[in-house]
Structure formats: structure tokens, C-alpha cells
Description:
Elements: E1 12-15, E2 32-38, H1 42-45, H2 48-58, E3 62-69, H3 75-87, E4 92-97, H4 99-114, H5 118-122, E5 134-138, E6 150-155, E7 160-165, E8 173-176, H6 186-205, H7 211-233, H8 238-257, H9 262-273, H10 279-296, H11 301-310, H12 320-332, H13 350-361, H14 374-384
Parallel strand pairs: 1-8, 2-3, 2-4, 4-5, 5-8
Antiparallel strand pairs: 6-7
Helix pairs in contact: 3-4, 6-7, 6-8, 6-10, 7-8, 9-10, 9-13, 10-12, 10-14, 11-12, 13-14
Amino acid sequence: MNTKFNFNNPTNILFGSGMLNELGKQSLPGKKACILISSGKSTRANGYLDRVIEQLKSANVEYVIYDKFTENPLKEHCEEGGKFARENECDFIVALGGGAVLDSSKMVSSMATNGGDLWEYAKGKAFKNAGLPIVTITTTSGTGSEVNCSGVISNLATQEKIGFGDGRNIPVLAIVDPELMRTVPAKYTAYQGFDALFHNTEVMISSGVNIMSEAIALSAIENIAKYLPRAVADGSDLEAREHVAYASTMAGITMNLTLTTAAHSLEHSMSAYHHNLPHGAGLIIISRAFYEFFIEKHACDEQFIKMARAMGIENADKPEDFITALMNLQKACGVDDLKISEYGFEKSEAMTIAKGARSMQGILFESNPCEMTDEDCALVFEKSYR
């Protein structure tokens, strides 16, 4: 086990039920906020936006609102949001929402101070100027984006979906209040929960796993396995929401310590070509075949056994026990019968998706515990096809 790591996570995390009420008491990084929310109705309908505004007013902070973000957030909205923040002379960002809004906040932050074409930065151009400070308030449990500096953005014109960012964009403050998550529908609770699970399971099998990221990841995996079925069954179960939220935020920290693997590259390619596919659903669909590839190669048997034990198989002694635990959890959460064909996919797209995964996010292939070719990736998709 690698005992070297670089841990620098300067985000002040306020975690727990009711923590949104503490926002106005914090030392906020500016006097005029650009509040980012999605184009959906839930943030307003559930009163979360009004509560944030009330907290900002109590801290004598002015605000404007930008509200166009969608699931699998788009390049154009990030550029437009950055221009909106700049023209309104905002000096910090408040991101209120799920993964799409939190991911987009990093890009809005940088585009507010840099301008230009966001896709040039996605392709490797460095942001010259530091972005605006970011405060994140997450309303879902899935991405861990409340505590890291990057985001995954889609470009419909080029059919690409790329994760990138600026190390200076780690949020200065993150509020993780599980009370804001009780209204997430069961289906999306499951999708988001499995996204958080796979962040941690991918860290566990990553070639870069270390003594710290493993400890945190195993704790998160244990909490998701135990509490996600409860959160899916009863969204108002606050104890379950708290434990799943903990696991999701911890995933954000493990990903700051250790990169995830090519499973995320594959899914981002899938939803780049079929934009209506929810990220968590895509990960669930390919999960069995993806992990079985490494089990068949005996690439990291001990890591799979550790995860199986964390997921409730106390006497696990072979890597296949992880697959048993994973399938049991998917069944308990009602997501064991997802069909990729329902999102418009054809089996013939397997190699296109495989090559797209490497071209869009090839860096994650370096984290795999053994080599995985384009043909291997195509086979994962073919085996997952229903």
C-alpha cells in the first residue's frame, strides 16, 4: 500500500442537518454573489433559494441569479454564466444545486475572470486569471463536486464531454445539509448514490490508491451499502440521507487524493453521444462488466475483497464476492434492470464509445490497475447492452 499522499483540501465544510442556517454567519468571500441554480423548479419550489437569499441578506450580501443549468451541463451555459457574473460585477459565486450546478460553478468562476471559448480550456489551455471564489450548497448526494476544483461539461456541437478545471477553484466553503436532499425522487437518489459509490470503488482499485484515500473510500462504501436502500425507499429518512451525504462528500475528498478509473471515461463518452443518459444510470449499467474485467485479470483481488466486506459480506474471501454485493445493492435500490437501449443506444456503437472514452478522458485509463484496450472497453459495453 502506498503511504505517500498529497492532501490539500482548503474547503471549509459545514456538514449536517440544518447547516444551511449557518451560511449568513460565515465569513463570506465577497459582497455580491452570483447565485447559480438549475433550470428546474425544485430549488425554488422547495424554498431552498429563498432560504439562501435570506442568509445572504443577513450577511449584507447582494445577489443576482443565473438559472439555466441542465443535467449534463453545457459549455454554452457556463460561458454565458461567466459573462453574466462579470457584467453584474459579482465578486463570488454561490452554487446551489446538484452535480450539474456544482460542476458548472467552477467554469462560471473561471469564465467570469478570463472569458474566451471554454472548450479551448477543456482541451488544455490554462486559465490565466484565478476565478471568483466559490461557495457550494449541495442539494444531492452524488458527485462530491462541493469539495473539488473541477467539473464535467458537455459540448453538443462536438459530441464531447470532458472533465477539467483549475486548481484555484476549490470552493472556499461547502454546505452539506441533508435536509435539502429529502425531496430528491427515489430514482435519482439511487443514480446519485451509485455515482458516489463508484467514485469510491474506483479509487479503491486505482493504481494511485494510498493509505489515506483507501481509508476514506472504505468508510464511504460501507455507509452507502448500508443506508442507500433506506434513502431510496423513504426520502424523508433523514438518518439515511445523512449517511449517504457523508459518503458522497468523502468521495469528493478521495478524488482529490486519487484519480478514478476508466469507468468514468466510458460513461462520459456514453452520455456525450446520448445526452439524455443520467450519469449515475450509465455507471450502473456498465458496472458489472467493468469490474469483472479486472477480477478476471486478478488485477487487484485484495481490493475487491476489502470492498465486499465493507458492503456487508463479512466473510468475503474472493474478489467475486464484490460483484455479489454490488448486484445485491442494485436490486435493493431497484436499479438492477436498467436497459441502455431505452436511451437510444445501439450495440454497434461499442467501439465508437470506447474510442471516445480514451480521447475525451484518457488520463483516467492511467489509473486502471492493469491495461485496458479499446477492444476491452467495447466489450464492456457489449456485455452491458440490454
